[in-house]
Specification:
The protein is an alpha+beta fold. The chain is 41% helix and 22% strand. It has 29 helices and 29 strands. It is globular and about 90 Å long. Bound molecules: zinc ion. The site of zinc ion has 8 residues, from helix 4 and helix 5.
């Protein structure tokens, strides 16, 4: 799955049916060596499914469906009841065929709280193979859980399409099932729909039969053995673009009439699939790979890796030539690279239980970064790994963090596990280990792991074992320290001395924390790389709390050179001064890493908060664009901390504008021909930040261009259209807001329409923000747009948005996918600086959040307390620094 980009965070298969059921050598070897540890389960283990035949007939107009399930299962422990998972399903006729050919009629009961259905029999069932058949009915939702409907406007009127979303635990809303990743089985899916609708499943259609009444029945080919959360179905008026790679058909499925916007996604699938067939050493095992574009959005995810049928919201898949930017183009590639990585890591080989979710998400995050960097070197994606690591460390340095591998007990805990630790820290730890063993050994380990566990389930140690064997080098201590315990190591350079052309470093290891200055540090085995500029890198593993290194050369020493390590580096004053004075000549990735450390250590009180500004001042206007994007982002952050204190904020803004304006003067409003992607990204980031910092010229120019109208491609080029409209919306008066509202109502393209509704929620003006909140509760924006609007209001007005959402909780709950609710409300409050919000969040959690699902609440509280602390303790250092600049 791919998480949606959340503005509040600093920072987002198929096979030949005939062969699919044959046991592969890997399956045979797995059967011969059953896992020693029983997987976690919420179901009794004595019964397991081997094959599902599911037929559904959706009634899209009534938001309901009829289903028939025929499940082949094996009883291994005698039992008089078969318990499986089911949610919001009602059962009618049910039977069980026994190995002796008898037909038994069970008594069926459902437990809504446990999300189970029990089929009870008069006498115990002896071990053996049975077939359970049942007719049932279910509900079609309006948010992305289970089988759900998305409505959208077209030139030919309003349309409704159906899709499924089952991760982590919503297949049980679609069919009675053993809805846990470790219960793998094969699937025959059949669907009855109106003729003329396109149906898409994991596998190609095997047979289409015309029925009476304008209906058709489509049966898909049998899937390979897989987990329930990867099953997929879509039904609607679609078009499909196709291509082929290494004998696999690839497709992009869009709402009818949009297929010309799919070229970028299709090309991404083509090059990524070819790259992965090579990297994994096991060819993609299904006959086709579709990517299905759907209108709307979710607070929980932007794309999902269903095997052979990736689902992606169209904001992350299609290129609309009117509004798409280089960021969209890069995002489409990176989402495809992430989801296609899952076709192996997740789909072919699956974690046994949600404890090891990071095996899916950390790996896909790392693989997408690595592959984007390899196939699009001109985007300089490698520099972005530093930002991903920063996001993880921010989350990992407060008390509510958790280990990468964590104990998951409830469905809601599993859905909360889709967080920055699982994705970004998981990806960063893999990057560190790959760097430690070398990329060839790492790839050999991954290939062996995939070969050994294809169609099976694993735990983290299965991966470590394979990598260690391939590398011939111990990785377990490092891997365990960074995945089984939480937190961020802090490497201090206690001394650095130069003799005989060599620099001797003495290092000690502490722990970087933002909210527990007196915490006793944990211990890690930390792979540390150091380098004196112009000389070779040297590495060591710091263990037991201290270490030393002898590095060739004398001069500016960079620890964590190359920035592959997951730790913070704290230099002594003399070393930091040397780095500052030599900063401009360091490699860009080290400049970014050092700026990240300097910022975070400064905000946590381990350096002066103004040290970051000292570094920023040394960066020349023509430096690498990524550096200036980083500086613009942190100036934005500081500006937020000054909110509510007009005089101090004005003085800070004058300085910040003065720093950025010369850079913007070079970059300008208008793109040159064949301009590099990083420059385009920098332009957007400078325009956005300067507008935030109250740059009157930038705001006025944005308004002038907006007033020229959407048809003026010179004033409003696609690359700037959304950005300019967003700035105008943020600074809107009532007349401008009304104009934007009229534009949103008239817009027929869902992608642009949804964006306009979101921008209606951007104003700084309190009264307009309130109008946006009221609008979000009406039917007008659309079922999957409103939750995002309330979240957007929270960017400028967190307290107002939270109070409003809580006051209208029952309505708001209907606008949020059920998997996201426990973290949606804390997410809105997250930007608050009001001490009263802490109490409000606790009261809300006490009333509405399960005691086992409060991590998001406690993390939001930690963020608010941290922000209050920064305002009180760090900003005076920045004020004093500004004073010294003569500002
Ligand atoms: Zn994912």
């Amino acid at each position: 799955m791919r998480r949606p980009l959340i503005a509040a965070i600093l920072l987002g298969l198929y096979g030949a049916a005939s062969g699919a059921q044959a046991q592969t050598p890997a399956e045979a070897s797995l059967a011969a060596h059953p896992p020693a540890v029983e997987a976690t389960t919420q179901l009794p283990r004595g019964v397991s499914p081997t094959h599902y035949a599911i037929e559904v007939a959706p009634h899209a107009d009534k938001l309901a469906f009829d289903g028939k399930a025929k499940i082949d299962l094996e009883v291994t422990t005698s039992t008089s009841a078969i318990v499986l998972q089911a949610l919001d399903l009602a059962f009618a006729h049910s039977t069980l065929s026994t190995p002796q050919g008898e037909t038994l009629v069970p008594k069926v009961s459902v437990d809504a709280d446990a999300q189970t259905a029990t089929f009870a029999f008069d006498a115990p069932l002896a071990p053996g193979r049975y077939t359970l058949s049942t007719d049932y009915t279910g509900k079609i939702g309006t948010q992305a859980n289970g089988l759900f409907a998305l409505d959208y406007d077209t030139d030919a009127g309003r349309k409704r399409a159906l899709y499924t979303q089952f991760e982590n635990s919503d297949a049980r809303r679609f069919m009675p099932s053993w809805d846990e990743p470790n219960f793998k089985a094969t699937f025959d899916l059949t669907v009855v729909t109106p003729k003329g609708q396109m149906v898409v499943g994991n596998m190609p259609a095997a047979e289409t039969t015309a029925l009476g009444n304008g209906l058709q029945r489509v049966r898909f080919q049998t899937s390979p053995k897989m987990s329930t959360y990867l099953l997929f179905l879509a039904v609607g008026e679609f078009d499909r673009a196709t291509g082929s790679v290494d004998g696999t058909e690839i497709g992009v499925v869009t709402p009818r009439g949009k297929v010309d916007q799919a070229a970028g996604a299709l090309e991404a699938s083509r090059v990524v699939l070819r790259e992965y067939n090579d990297y994994f050493g096991v060819k993609y095992p299904l006959p086709k790979l579709d990517n299905i574009a759907a209108p709307g959005s979710s607070q929980f995810f932007s794309a999902m890796e269903n095997w052979g049928a990736i689902f992606t919201f169209e904001h992350s898949l299609l290129v609309d030539p009117k509004i798409s930017t280089i960021r969209n183009v890069q995002g489409i590639f990176s989402v495809a690279a992430h989801e296609i990585a899952h076709q192996w890591f997740g789909d072919l080989v699956t974690m046994s239980w949600w404890d090891d979710l990071w095996l899916n998400e950390g790996f896909a995050t790392w693989m997408a970064g690595r592959t984007t960097q390899k196939l699009h070197p001109e985007w300089k994606t490698e520099l972005r790994a530093v930002g991903g690591r920063e996001g993880a460390m921010a989350r990992d340095s407060v008390a509510t963090t958790h280990p990468v591998v964590q104990k998951i007990q409830t469905v809601e805990q599993a859905s909360q596990a889709f967080d920055a630790i699982t994705y970004s820290k998981g990806g960063a730890v893999i990057r560190m280990l790959e760097n430690y063993v070398g990329e060839d050994a790492w790839r050999e380990g991954v290939r062996a792991y995939i070969r050994q566990h294809a169609y099976g389930n694993t735990v983290s140690d299965d991966l470590w074992g394979a990598v260690q064997q391939a590398a011939g080098k111990p990785v377990l201590d490092i891997a365990h320290d960074f995945t089984l315990q939480p937190g961020v190591p802090l490497i201090r350079i206690d001394s650095a001395s130069c003799t005989g052309g060599k620099t001797r470093l003495r290092l000690s290891q502490g722990e970087f924390t933002r909210d527990r200055p007196d915490k006793v540090p944990l211990r890690w085995h930390v792979p540390v790389v150091a380098q004196v500029q112009g000389n070779a890198r040297v590495d060591t593993v710091v263990a037991g709390g201290s270490g030393s290194l002898v590095v060739p050369g004398c001069g500016v020493v960079v620890v964590n050179a190359g920035q592959a390590g997951y730790y913070r580096t704290l230099y002594g004053e003399a070393q930091f001064a040397a780095i500052r004075d030599g900063f401009v000549s360091l490699p860009t990735i080290d400049q970014l890493g050092i700026m990240g450390d300097t910022w975070s250590l400064g905000m946590a009180g381990l350096r002066s908060a103004s040290d970051y500004l000292d570094l920023a001042k040394t960066v020349p206007a023509d430096a690498e664009p990524a550096l200036w994007s980083d500086i613009a982002g942190h100036l934005d952050d500081l500006d937020d901390y000054y909110d509510g204190d007009v005089a101090r904020q004005q003085r800070f803004r004058a300085f910040a504008r003065g720093l950025l304006q010369p850079v913007f003067a070079r970059v300008g409003w208008n793109a040159g021909t064949d301009e590099d992607a990083p420059v385009q990204l920098l332009r957007s980031s400078l325009i956005g930040t300067l507008a935030n910092l109250g740059d009157e010229a930038v705001i006025a120019e944005a308004k002038r261009r907006f007033d020229a109208g959407p048809d003026d491609a010179v004033a409003l080029p696609p690359a700037l259209r959304s950005l300019i409209t967003g700035i105008v919306a943020e600074h809107a008066d009532a007349a401008t807001w009304d104009k934007l509202h009229a534009m949103a109502k008239a817009e027929k393209t869902p992608l642009i329409r949804d964006q306009l509704y979101d921008m209606l929620a951007a104003p700084r003006d309190d009264a307009l923000a309130q109008r946006a909140l009221d609008l979000a509760l009406t039917d007008e924006p659309g079922a999957t747009v409103s939750a995002g609007m309330i979240d957007t209001v929270s960017a400028e007005h967190p307290d107002m948005a939270f109070d409003f959402a809580v006051a209208h909780r029952e309505q708001v709950d209907q606008l949020v996918d059920s998997t996201s609710r426990a973290r949606y409300y804390p997410g809105i409050a997250n930007g608050s600086s009001d001490p009263a919000m802490v109490g409000k969040l606790r009261a809300f959690a006490d009333a509405h959040v399960a005691a086992t699902s409060r991590n998001a609440t406690e993390t939001a509280i930690a963020g608010i307390e941290y922000r209050i602390g920064v305002k009180r303790e760090r900003l005076p250092q920045v004020d004093a620094w500004l004073q010294r600049q003569g500002g």
